[in-house]
Design goal:
With 79 residues, the chain is mainly α. Helix content is 67%, strand content 5%.
Length: 79
Amino acid sequence: MSQAPLNALRAFEAVARTGSFRAAAEALFVTQPAISHQVRHLEDWVGAPLFNRQGRLPVLTPRGEALARDLSLAFDSIA
C-alpha cells in the first residue's frame, strides 16, 4: 500500500475539526473545491467514505471518526 496523501489528510482533518468544507478551506487558505477534491482522494485511498454528505454539513462516518481521532492525536504530537 502506498503512503497516505499528506495534503488529503490535512484537508480531511480540517473538515472534521471545523465541521464544514468551507471553514476547512478558509483555515487552510485554499478553495472549497480543493478541500472536496482532497477529501475524495483520501476516501479513494482508504476505500471507504469518511463523511456522510446528507444535508449541508458533513457528518463523519464511524471510519471517519476513528481517522479524525487518530489524526488529531498525531498532529498534536507533531506540534
